[in-house]
Batch of 3 targets.
Target 1
Amino acid sequence: MKKIAYFASLVILAGLVVVACKKDDDSTPPTEENKHAITDLDPKEGPVGQEVVIIGTNFTDQNATAAIGGTAAVITGVNTDKTELYIEVPNGATDGKISVTIDGLRVESTQIFDVTETIAGPESIELAETDLAMRSLETISVPEITNIADFDNPMVQWESNTPETAVVDNDGNITALQAGEAQIEVSINSASGELNTTIEVTVEESILVVGSFDNGNYDVASLWLNEEQIVLGDETDYSNAASVNGRYVAGYEGNRACVWHIKNKGEINRIDLTADGVGYAEAKSVVNIGDDVIAAGFIYKDENENSM
């Protein structure tokens, strides 16, 4: 009886081992529904270190490897809908198809990825100046990039991180708007990659005086910016500037109340507040609140003076 019991125990133990082994080996093989596929590459060429987007379906970065022409590449990520897998061109890679292996299933692209030569370029952007002092309403050009000739096919961009203090246009002209600190970010994209640097800008308030001057025929509205005269009015009619607030000047031209918007010394827009034929009007003060410009003054009509 003892032998029979011992034999039965061995049989039961063996059965448990077989069941356990089956459970350990239980994995879901890829099916046509969850099989991954490569449909495109972006870009289709690039140097070592270039990020490549593998476009397709059912991608994951778990239990996954990738290669370019047989050389293993690092997978850097996958998008949320599993249609893009991101890799970098590895050192030693040569032209060839890109393969992706997930859970032992390998697929490869129909296109050949061309590994291009890495183009050497400057390691930094060199500027003639990196610190600028400006006054409000002043416009100057960004400092010269002294090593621009060393870049291969450069594309230069400028951007202000504090546009309420200073702005920069696509041509690299910086305009100071109000007192404060700002940074102008300079970036250069070229065949060798992208480089960035910054320009520190300190803006002080300008000294502004408004009024009019006699041109021999008419009194003409003017603004004096740090003692430099800027003519606001049309010199063929009477006008006057009554007050200034930031970049806005209140006054009149002809018989119309108006506000002059000074974008910079060379760009001034007149905003008419009243039309011809409604009587004489004049704006006496102006404030700028957000996107709104609010002026106060009077309209003289039918021998009655009315506030605006």
Target 2
Amino acid sequence: MLSSEQRVKIRHWFYAEHWKVGTIAQELGLHPDTVRHGQVDWAHFGEVPVGRARRRLSCFLITLSYSRALYLEFFFDQSMENFLRGHVHAFHAWSGQPRILLYDNLRSAVLERRGDQIHFHPRLLDLCSHYHFAPRPCQVRAANQKAYVSYCTSSCQCNVESRLPGPSASAAFENRTFFQRFI
């Protein structure tokens, strides 16, 4: 477990000084496994008006286990294309990627699960081979394995819902100024 002082150092080196993940781990003398994990999930934010229609608003969340760095991206659906796009944008924003990403039983990631046998989506496996990371499933009914990304999901939902603009929500979503202020 990382101490609060280590977390502060990691955030400073990563965001302020733009250090790479491996350099930070080496500087702190951390075990390599603590810096290699990330967690991925979708969050649902209800419906928003876009013109005359109402669209579902979803948020792609990915967080790093060692630094608690969080990447959010909002989409109007939870399609496989947006799921993969969220990964790519997060990796570019972080200038790298974790070695292992943990997935809950997301339809975008897991096609079939029977006991311990997991069948991941082939397009996700293509992304994994391109970016050199391994997908890992969370165990069924093991909330401790995905606790932080679940916490981020619920806190983001509370923060966004309390700040949602009124009838001009469609304009805010179209030009993304609201979410730039939020993030």
Target 3
Amino acid sequence: MKKRRRWRRWLRPVLVSAAMLILLGAIVTGIVLLIHSLIAGPKHAGSSSSQTSSAVSKAASSAKSSSAPRASSSPNKVSSASSSRTSRPATQTAPFTQNDAKYFSGAAFLGDSLTEGLEYFSVMDDATLLGETGLSTYTALTHPQTIGGKKVMVADAVKAAKPSVIYVMLGSNEINWMAQGDYIKYYDKLIDTLQKGSPQAQIEIESILPVTASYEKRYPDRSNSHIDQFNGALRLMCNSRGLKFLDIASVMKDEDGKLPSSASDDGIHLRAPYYNRWISYLLANK
């Protein structure tokens, strides 16, 4: 009996040790598989929705003569902007001339997906269009954008174009989450950066554009009254700096101070006739 007890006392720790080793091996294997899955990540078709950026290039002349595009998704906070597009609208209606195109030949346009839409108008053939989906005053200062296949800061892209005039339209992507004071602070700093890199250029600030009634019902933090408040602050900033403020919003509104439903498919991105209004406003306010 004593020998059997000694044998049991010896076997018990061996079995316990073996069980612990098996458990430890299973835990290590699980950790390795988890790390591998995190590194590999799930694969998605298309580009990420986080700060989607696309190089802005000239569209084919047939596309330009047919229409202007709109992004199907609304501009969101910087981390959730997307750039999927809906079908294009009917043909251009404004009779832009060669002299009009010549006027924009030395210009650079900086903005978000709304500015991207200008690339489909032949009057902008010789302008430098730096429209990036999801761009805001904050990301224009802090995040490189993919332009011409390269990651560059927008101020450097503007500098490389050597423009005589820089049109800036930013705000649609941040008014729903950024305080008005911060918006003006970042805008002010962006202007300083642009002036430093392109001292020869005249900088003109374009207003934030209105949205439709149905759009502001869906997104009350982007209401037209909220947009008007930001535009008022933007105008004051321009006055204090001696910059030209282009109130493009004024030619986009209906009698109720909203973007007409006929102007947009998604409530914010413009159809061709309203891009014509935008371009015509610039030509009338040289």
